[in-house]
From TrEMBL:
One of its GO terms (molecular function) is 2-dehydropantoate 2-reductase activity. It catalyses: (R)-pantoate + NADP(+) = 2-dehydropantoate + NADPH + H(+). The keyword Oxidoreductase applies. PANTHER family: 2-DEHYDROPANTOATE 2-REDUCTASE, PROBABLE 2-DEHYDROPANTOATE 2-REDUCTASE. It comes from Flavobacterium taihuense. InterPro entries: ApbA (IPR003710), KPA_reductase (IPR013752), KPR-Related (IPR051402), KPR_N (IPR013332). Pfam families: ApbA, ApbA_C. Residues 5-157 form the Ketopantoate reductase N-terminal domain. Catalyzes the NADPH-dependent reduction of ketopantoate into pantoic acid. Its EC number is 1.1.1.169. Keywords: NADP, Oxidoreductase, Pantothenate biosynthesis. Pathway: Cofactor biosynthesis; (R)-pantothenate biosynthesis; (R)-pantoate from 3-methyl-2-oxobutanoate: step 2/2. This is 2-dehydropantoate 2-reductase. Belongs to the ketopantoate reductase family.
């Protein structure tokens, strides 16, 4: 019987890493890659495949299965969730029939509470924690664009990794995904969250891309203030962040494509629903919970919710 790996959410993250898995395993006798898609994306990928464009060129992949029907998707051994954070509960309820008590679930969502929320829905399951560093986005249904060379995937479990989790790492490695199975996954996820939360909040509030923020002293000060506030929240929560986390995060941003921006900023510009609750409001609420002052986050939240 084949191992079924489901990809829920074919955006910049799910589409890109799901595409690499499909490229490796589309003709495998032991692994099925299943794309869980709806609407126009389902129609396009079913007929024309999933296109991934990078700085080096373009490739098209055809998954073993692409469907929104739980009966066709079948029972999954692994489910990689890369939906928007506001879609987590509704998406998982739609495909509850595909998840058994043995399904390993790996969320690769923005924010830091995805695993906790999924565990409430599926308390018997092994729900991992994970995060990625990548600049990628949907340019049209069934077409993913990745900018720059940076692509790293980190995942792990608070409990000891079992054989199915280490097997997932081997699947990633064979598909040439730069992935790391790490022990201190909560700190790793929060380190990424510090990066993406401050960036999403700053780009959306200032309506500027990375290069514009870094080159404008006033804009950069807003960004640095956000970093200091969220880093203090993490510290008071008891998370062991690098002492120079703010400087490290600024360096990561300086190495990022300067013309890029955050997915939340792109959603604001397109008048789409945004992840402001998970990326901005969450920090404000954690600040209140742990008695940490977050005036810049609060100011930006008020503006973004107008």
């Amino acid at each position: 019987m084949k191992t079924r790996i489901g990809i829920l959410g074919l955006g910049g993250v799910g589409g890109y890493f799901g595409g690499l898995l499909t490229k490796e395993y589309a003709t495998s006798d032991t692994i099925d890659i299943v794309f869980i898609a709806r609407g126009e994306t389902l129609k396009v990928v079913s007929e024309f495949g999933l296109k991934i464009r990078t700085d080096e060129g373009e490739m098209t992949v055809f998954p073993n299965i692409v469907s929104d029907n739980p009966e066709i998707i079948g029972k999954l051994e692994y489910l990689i969730c890369a939906t928007k954070t506001y879609d987590i509960e509704t998406s998982f309820e739609s495909y509850r029939k595909c998840i058994t008590s043995n399904t390993i679930i790996l969320p690769l969502c923005n924010g830091v509470d995805a695993s906790e929320r999924i565990s409430k829905l599926f308390p018997e399951n092994s729900v991992l924690q994970g995060c990625v560093y990548i600049v990628s986005m949907i340019v049209a249904p069934g077409i993913i664009k990745k900018i720059g060379p940076y692509e790293k995937l980190f995942f792990g479990s608070k409990s000891n990794a079992d054989s199915k989790i280490t097997a997932l790492q081997s699947f990633f490695e064979k598909a040439k995904i730069e992935s790391y199975l790490v022990e201190n996954i909560e700190e790793t996820v929060w380190e990424k969250f510090i990066f993406i939360s401050a960036l999403a909040s700053a780009t959306s509030y200032l309506n500027q891309n990375i290069g514009q923020i870094l080159s404008n002293p006033e804009s950069k000060q807003v960004y640095v203030s956000l970093l200091n506030e969220i880093a203090l929240v993490a510290s008071v929560k008891g998370l062991k962040m690098p002492e120079n986390i703010v400087e490290q995060t600024i360096l990561k941003l300086e190495k990022s494509p300067q013309e890029a921006t955050s997915s939340m900023h792109r959603d604001f510009l397109a008048h789409h629903k945004t992840e402001v609750v998970s990326l901005t409001e969450f920090v404000v609420k954690e600040g209140i919970k742990y008695d940490v002052s977050t005036p810049i986050y609060q100011m930006i939240l008020r503006k973004l919710l107008e």
